[in-house]
Amino acid sequence: MASGNLKYWYLHEHRLFRNLSFSEIDALCILKKFKRSKKNEFVDLPFSDKERIYFIKKGIIKLISVDDNGEEQLIDILQKGDIFGDLNLERQSSDRELLKVVSDEAIICTFYREKLEEVMVKKPEFALNYIKFVGFNFKKLENNYKNILFKDAKTRLLLLIKRLIEKEQPLGNAYNIPKYLTQKDLAQLICTTRQTIITLIKDLESDGILEMSHKEIVIKDVDAINKFLENVK
């Protein structure tokens, strides 16, 4: 496959872009090459006075903020297929957040928001898909807040683990998550303490559901996690 067509293939893989032609995707992509970043690098997103939207082709990225003491606060985890930026098409975010690569490599595509709007005007069915996509992601965000408010720490941890593995679509009942999240990260993501995370991990290891090592989190029983979450209101 010619290098010029790779970007089309990358975007066509995403369900949001599957109905666009090569020329329509070409109208979106403004980078001749995809931005590649290595593990532990902070992603240096290009400066522009125009608002951009970003698409993760490959890899896992931490969205973090850094306080005055240089301490990192984990906000979210972005994975392959995630789109981030000014998704609501209404206002530019004033948040100053950093992106740190935690996988071996990350590849990011970017395009101008105004180019996206042009395609939406010409292709109403794409505009509808985009609205559904954004609405679905806002719904997930709303559910995350509800989980933090109303669900216990064990349920929140298992919901997080399920989210981390579901995009990879594991074929069997076991799955290995590379150890890119520390106990502190896990605690920040589900709004609990590091000591609670240590206790929960020990309990889940005793139940034979997972095993945490220095290199990875081994999910031994994906079905057990799904079964537990099925009974959660």
How would you characterize the overall build of this protein?
Helix 5 crosses helix 8 (222-230). This protein has helices at residues 3-13, 22-28, 113-122, 124-150, 153-166, 183-189, 194-206, 222-230, and strands at residues 35-38, 52-58, 61-66, 72-78, 83-85, 98-101, 105-112, 175-178, 210-212, 216-219. It is built from eight helices and ten strands. It has two domains: 3-141, Jelly Rolls (Sandwich), CATH 2.60.120.10; 151-230, Arc Repressor Mutant, subunit A, CATH 1.10.10.10. A hairpin with a 3-residue loop joins strand 9 and strand 10 (216-219). It is 42% helix and 21% strand. It is an alpha+beta fold. The longest helix is centred in the middle third of the chain and has 27 residues, at 124-150. The chain has a four-stranded antiparallel beta sheet. The model has no long low-confidence stretch (mean pLDDT 79). It is globular, with a radius of gyration of 19 Å.
Ordered list of secondary-structure elements with their pairings:
Elements: H1 3-13, H2 22-28, E1 35-38, E2 52-58, E3 61-66, E4 72-78, E5 83-85, E6 98-101, E7 105-112, H3 113-122, H4 124-150, H5 153-166, E8 175-178, H6 183-189, H7 194-206, E9 210-212, E10 216-219, H8 222-230
Antiparallel strand pairs: 1-7, 2-5, 2-7, 3-4, 3-6, 8-10, 9-10
At CATH's second level, what is the architecture of the largest domain?
A: Sandwich
Q: List low-pLDDT spans.
A: none
Distance between the termini: 48 Å
Per CATH, the superfamily of the largest domain is Jelly Rolls
Helix content: 40-55%
The helix tally amounts to 8
Shape: globular
Estimate what percentage of residues fall within beta strands. 15-25%
Q: In terms of structural class, how would the helical and strand content be classed?
A: alpha+beta
CATH hierarchy, class of the largest domain: Mainly Beta
